[in-house]
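User: When convenient, might I ask for sequence and structure tokens for a protein?

AI:
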Amino acid sequence: MDVFQAMRVFAKVVELDGFSRAAQRLGISATAASRLVADLEARLGVRLLNRTTRRLYLTDSGRSYYERCTHILNDLDEAELTIASTAGRPQGLLRVSAPVSFGIKHLSPLFLDYLERYPEVKLELSLADRQVDLVEEGYDLALRITHELKTMLVARPLAPARLVVCAAPAYLKRHGVPRTPEDLRRHKCLCYTYDAAPGTWEFEGPSGCIRVSVEGPLATNNGDTLRAAALAGRGIIMEPTFQVGEDLKQGRLIRLLPEYPLRSLTLYAVYPTRRYLSPKVRTLVDFLVERITEPLPWDAWMR
């Protein structure tokens, strides 16, 4: 039994002094209206109405219950009107998770522009390279960068995140330039520990996929640390161009093995469901689609 529906029927029966008139007003049959009130009485364990052939009389319990019903139903109607009036307007707390380096370098200014466009939204941004559980941890949206997204959540691709192997000129001067992926085995390679297979770099060669096991003096879960080490001449890194694009453009880092491309990552916006998508999530996803477009600013070195 829908308790709120039964309460509405009971209140309408009292207001209109009859089941037939109440049923007609509510668009149901008189039999259905009578059954709902009877079910409500059974649920409460009291009689609410005394019925005669001519009219209905409220019992003492019925009178008390009717007064409470009207307050509850009025509050419910007011709440529904309030929600309906704001349903199309982005507002309230928006909890977002994003990768650390990409969030700092590229998302922060975009989020500030979004908040200027939608001033009723309050953004709570959590930067972490681990994959958060949106439902368990209460996030509205996450930005994820990965080769392949294995999830039951809704995922909208936003942009490619191209990978490059690179090193500082000083390192290459001391240790030489690798000409093939296999040459990397004798070099100091700095690895990202959140990769699916840390220490194994995959290239596309003329005959297909080439997997090379690499090692070096540093492995970390932070791309900024890898970039800093590479700039200091400590080794070779495999990093997304959003991390090292400006360094490539300025010559601080040199791209290696361009004849052996790496499979691109993809930046996704991930959220729990399409159904009843809130305006704040919908507008943020649309805003990111609008602003993160090709040609990507961090790939200017390629042009």
In short: The chain has a mean pLDDT of 90. The longest strand covers residues 154-161. The longest helix spans residues 60-86.
